[in-house]
Amino acid sequence: YFQNTLSINATFQSLRGNVYNSVIIENLQVFDSQDHDATEILSIQSLDLSFNLLKLLFYEDKLQSVNHINVTDVDYHIIRDLNGTWRHFKLLSKSTNPYKFSGNIFIDNFSLHYLDYRGWQQKPLLKPFHSTVEMLSGSLKFNSPDTGILELSGKLTRSQEPFVISGYLWPTKKDYLIHFNTPALSIKHWISYVISQEGFTDLAGLASA
Fold first, then answer.
1. Which tens digits make up the pLDDT trace of 65-88?
2. Mean pLDDT throughout 142-158?
3. 6-21 residue pLDDT tens
4. Cα–Cα distance between 3 and 49 in angstroms, integer?
5. Closest by alpha carbon to 181, among 158, 207, 205?
6. Smallest Cα–Cα separation from 61: which of 127, 121, 6, 133?
7. What angle do CA 44, 45, 49 make, to 5 degrees?
8. pLDDT averaged over every residue in the chain
9. Which of 138, 139, 116 has its CA nearest to residue 126?
């Protein structure tokens, strides 16, 4: 399904469950391309799908058979290489009909990793910039196939301060609006990376964002 329908490079270790209403995929890995040196972008320790068997058998769009999804121990990597290219995977559907999913995706222990080798200046960074948000938990709810509502809360690893991610996804429009909120962001760590200025190398303090 991943390869033939969504055109993404993915592997998993095991598949188990009750074939009548649920299946569990363990150690799922998704890569940014089909190349032999592809970069891992997403890993999920456990993905539990609850589905309607009749819909699975008779509906062309298999996503319509899914009632809800539980994902546990997730790592997602946002990576920018030395050339300034963002490494990510693309969902390239081979179907002419848009996919429709109405249900809830429950997320437990999600870590978001940001790694930038390039930076925002003319020359690449001497040392890659890295930051992680950990222990994110919450949900992505599709009360209708047109709109998904995202609510996640966790901690910024460096400061251990609360970090909230919220927003909306519109699958049919291929669009989204994401809001990040934390009360304490390290100026020394972030500001020198985002808006680095000559002569300003020793910054201190916290800022809300």
1. 999 999 999 999 999 999 999 988
2. 94
3. 667 888 999 998 889 9
4. 18
5. 207
6. 6
7. 75
8. 87
9. 116
- In this model, does residue 179 exceed pLDDT 60? yes
What is the pLDDT at residue 9? 85
Site of tokens 């020394």: 188
- Would you list the DSSP string of 60-91? SSGGGGEEEEEEEEEEEEEEE-TTSPEE----
What's at 137, amino acid-wise? S
Residue 115 CA to residue 128 CA, distance in Å, equals 7
* Token reading at 6: 């969504």
**Can you give the pTM of this predicted structure?**
0.85
The 3-state DSSP composition of the chain as helix, strand, coil percent (nearest 5) reads 10, 50, 40
Question: How far is Cα 11 from Cα 2, in angstroms, rounded to an integer?
Answer: 9
CA dist 145 and 149 (Å) reads: 11
